[in-house]
Amino acid sequence: MAYGLSLQNEREKMNNKFRFGLQYFMPESPSQWRETARKAEDSGYSTFFLADHYIGSGSALEAANHPIQTVAAIPAMMAAADATSSIMIGCKVICVDYHHPTVLAKELATIDFLSEGRLEIGFGAGWVSSEYEAMGMEMDKASIRIKRMGETVELCREFFKGSDMNYDGEYVYAKEFAAVPASPQKNGPKIMVGGGAQKILTTAGRLADIVSLNFNNSDGKIGAMGIGSSTAEKTREKISWIKDGAGSRFDQLELELPAYFTTVTNEAASVREEMAANFGFSVEEFSEYPHALIGSVAEICETLERRREEYGFSYISVNERHLEEFAPVVAELSGK
User: Fold this and answer.
1) CB 53 within 8 Å of CB 69
2) SS3 291
3) How many other CB atoms sit within 10 Å of the CB of residue 186?
4) Helix, strand, coil % (nearest 5) of the chain?
5) Could you read off the pLDDT of 97-133 as tens digits, one per residue?
6) What is the CA radius of gyration of the chain?
7) I need a surface site. Which of 23, 117, 215, 304 has the fewest CB within 10 A?
8) To which H or E segment does residue 42 belong?
């Protein structure tokens, strides 16, 4: 009994240690993609992420208010893995509707195999309505998309084990074959599920190893609705939804948060005041906005430690444009 409890306590400690991800999906050249992955590795980032979007410039992308992703997730992850030797490679997050479940499982398992166990993969239920339309895909209602995502996660977990596949879900189906290659990771790749609304976060609490808290972009685009859905108060509510789904396993989860508004500066007050005005917040509200990190390296470290204590966030990701300026924070807090 005591031994089992000590193992559980150790897992909980590991899940609460700081680590950092870098997200990048707009390389202008093959060499830039590989070099950025190596820089992230050399700077101590835990994970090199991209996203999973397919459309270039045009009215569909303008409707989503989303930046262009120049490379597709699956081949880009493998290229990044091949250019590095120790950093985890991931996608935050794969939109399951854009991929056949068994083909996706095989592709991910292959990346994990060829990278010698460096895959960390996120799954999402899709949200960019104009992208679905532009690609000629029907966008089902959220409850169906989330159910399909959950079944895809379950199928992939079985695939990563090298199981004999006999999965018969409502939307996902695979049977009468052995899954190869099995994951070189003891328990398979860590699985992240991300989102910003109640149903997806409850599902994430039930299924994931890592839960990524994001904006609620259920209106299909990045905008005021999503930004306003992630205040301190609403973030606490999101964590309650995760707890509802996780139950007794909540303490085993790792909570990840993207720091969308990051500025390393010694002039924090003026930057914070300007950003608050741009987003329609008071300075006090924006100072507590979980997705914002503004201040000197020491101030940001203090903020992250305080938010870990308050919310449980120990896994923070930043955009590639902050790679170098944020690296001292990574060096100071990683593993602590």
Assistant:
1) yes
2) coil
3) 6
4) 50, 20, 30
5) 999 999 999 999 999 999 999 999 999 999 999 999 9
6) 19
7) 117
8) helix 30-42
Query: What is the C-alpha separation between 189 and 179, in angstroms, rounded?
Result: 15
Which residue's structure tokens are 């993609």?
33
Beta strands in 170-312 (DSSP E): 173-178, 191-195, 210-213, 254-258, 261-264, 292-295
Distance, CA of 306 to CA of 18 (rounded, Å):
12
Handedness of CA 84, 261, 311, 268 (dihedral sign): positive
Tokens of 189: 């790749």
Q: Is the pTM of this model over 0.90?
A: yes
Task: Match domain 17-262+314-333 to its CATH number in 3.40.630.30, 3.20.20.30, 3.40.50.1110, 3.50.50.60.
Answer: 3.20.20.30
The amino acid sitting at 97 is D
pLDDT digits (tens, 9 = 90+) for 26-75: 999 999 999 999 999 999 999 999 999 999 999 999 998 899 999 999 99
Strands 19-23 and 313-319: parallel
pLDDT > 50? residue 4: no
